[in-house]
Amino acid sequence: MTAAFDVERVLAELTLEEKAALTSGSDFWHTEGVERLGVPRVMVTDGPHGLRKQAESADHLGIGNSVPATCFPPAAALASTWDVDLLDRVGRALGRETRGNEVAVLLGPGVNMKRSPLCGRNFEYFSEDPALAGDLGAALVSGIQSEGVGTSLKHFAANNQETDRMRVSADVDERTLREIYLPAFERVVKRAQPWTVMCSYNKINGTYASQDHWLLTEVLRDEWGFEGLVVSDWGAVVDRVAAVAAGLDLEMPATGGRTDALVVDAVKNGRLDEAVLDTAVRRVLTLIARARPALAEPGSIDVEAHHALAREAAADGSVLLKNAPVDGTPVLPLSADDAARAVVIGEFARTPRYQGAGSSQVNPTRLDDALTALRSATGTELPFAAGFAVAGAGGDAAPTDAALLAEAVEVARGAGTVLLFLGLPAVDESEGYDRTHLDLPANQVALLRAVAAVNDRVVVVLANGSAVAVEWQDAAAAVLETWLGGQAGGSAVADLLLGVRNPSGKLAETIPHRVEDTPAFGNFPGDNGHVRYGEGVLIGYRWYDTRLIDVAYPFGHGLSYTTFGYSDVTASVSGEGASSAVDVSVTVTNTGDRAGAETVQVYVGDPEAAVLRPTRELKAFAKVALEPGESRTLQFTLDARDLSYWHPALRRWAVGGGRTVIEVGASSRDIRGTAEVTVTGEALHGTLTADSTVNEWLAHPRGAELLGAAFGEATAALDPTMLAMMGDMPMRVVAGFGMGGFDLAGLDDLVARAAA
Ligand code: BGC
């Protein structure tokens, strides 16, 4: 790596052609350099849960091989840990591997919302909740960047499906964007300042994200204070000149100089201000300069320690959905005796499903499978049957293999416990396309039913990157959702089943009964180039809880081998309006006989709001480790933003105030304590005009006074039924009909006095 360079001095010496070249890649994975001025090229590479550094063939679909790197669990599993400290540690390890491989920027994490469980890339995303995704994303980014390398927060924004992802227009109202699809990005930007943000391929309300000035400049930089560089998703730039003008700094990958020439022309003919291009160049140079020190000292990578960390993360990201008693005792964890008499069934025990397909596909340093891990931990050659064949690249589910099934049933018959490894075939979950249903392959469900017919201690271990329907779960005594566990997922499962580790994961996404129940059903994935976000702010549990739709497992759910009690939930409000805050306190106690960790969730409801609000929204959480009998009192402070909604007309955050419900729970449907406070809201009145309705005038202190006086002179208008009928009439109509005791000239006078 060459010596340090001065960004401003280099900028001053660059030709126009060099500036255009610097703001696009030099190849698939490198920025451009300027040798004569000592500016090196630097490498950026995928991401997010491991490094995909390709040595030779370059592609963004995970096809070409890459150097070995630790494959940590993808975001779906990491999110289920609800553990910001763990995410920070995983981030540090990722940062060390990035640096150790002389890569400047790791292209992740992705904090897009899981709008539908069908999204093909959900395994790479954290949650259906923006606060959870934002907190975890910020921790991961801080961890990675603490090693002196950068991240790329992606895909900004409203990239919530793979179908037509490179063109589709996500048609979303602003309130929904502000409350649901943008806040995770906002939180990561404000807390962790990622070195780069990657814009998405899709359009938002008709404008390509790569060319959206409102998104890339007004919101991202002017409002949130983003200081880094905006890079395009690979191939997301449609009109490079428009993109630079909108605030896109770096186009990736290289276009062979084609779009650089367009930028040069645009500056020469005055269509693009050179100062705007200079700003982009400055950001690219700053990024390169920033990466220089770490790249000069790559350091070593502790492969063993990273594998151990991946194992810890996989265990803590697994969610124990169900653990029913058989003969009076929960089936898990297995005692030493149970373990010695267990059998293992399911191809995924031998051939793990541990990551998804596409640009995030990592070439692991090693790979643990559950069968080997269970055999070595128990010291017993546990019997195994594959039970099913996994569907191949054709996409069709493999037919039930009668011989495999019959063999599995024989293995299960008379066994102490059946550890049955099921999940989605790899072909079901990939970048580039979405799923069309929520089901496990039929041959796996048939296997479960057949095995359960001969053994009542069946433990289903699931491997899938996004929610699957679990209508078969009556046949299982226990269900452990491991998501995709990364390279150490196999040994992590053994740790959990054998009770070496106590499960502490919680669902970061709801598990619905049916795809028809899901919020975006009917509006996903859209058609004819548009996807309408018709469910608005009601995504995930916000939808199910507000509409009282029964779910298989709610957001936030997850069992432990111990139990937790909640007590003394209190809430108190301070300040008012835009400086309101609510302090919440709760005591949690480990009421069982094992050490364990509980994630306490704080939800806020605003039942008196002037707009439709979800019944409850997660605003804070904390994971706390407790010894048996130990108690801990947790304090949370909710700020005004946590109490606000995005006011569609005022186009800003607004504290509506009134009765505010604070719920503390173990899931969105397991609320253990509720406290109510009354928040003093802001004055949220727009300017009164002739077009404002009677109700809007009456809701405004000055308007009510003026109208009351005017109506006083037309007493018929005060009749309650009459008032109700008139409530939604614009004042100009009331005046035109002469119903309120004033004519149009009188109304002009009222409007003027209201403004005075
Ligand atoms: C993906 C990005 C990825 C990029 C580079 C794109 O297709 O959407 O997430 O970082 O390729 O591989």
UniProtKB/TrEMBL annotation:
Protein name per the record: Exo-alpha-(1->6)-L-arabinopyranosidase
Q: Which UniProt keywords apply?
A: Carbohydrate metabolism, Glycosidase, Hydrolase
Q: Which organism is it from?
A: Cellulomonas hominis
The record ties this protein, via InterPro entries, to: Cellulose_deg_GH3, Fn3-like, GH, Glyco_hydro_3_AS, Glyco_hydro_3_C, Glyco_hydro_3_C_sf, Glyco_hydro_3_N, Glyco_hydro_3_N_sf
Give me any GO biological process, just one.
Answer: carbohydrate metabolic process
Q: What does this protein do?
A: Catalyzes the hydrolysis of a non-reducing terminal alpha-L-arabinopyranosidic linkage in ginsenoside Rb2 (alpha-L-arabinopyranosyl-(1->6)-alpha-D-glucopyranosyl) to release alpha-D-glucopyranosyl (Rd). It is not able to hydrolyze alpha-L-arabinofuranosyl-(1->6)-alpha-D-glucopyranosyl (Rc).
A single Gene Ontology MF term assigned here is: beta-glucosidase activity
What residue range is the signal peptide? none
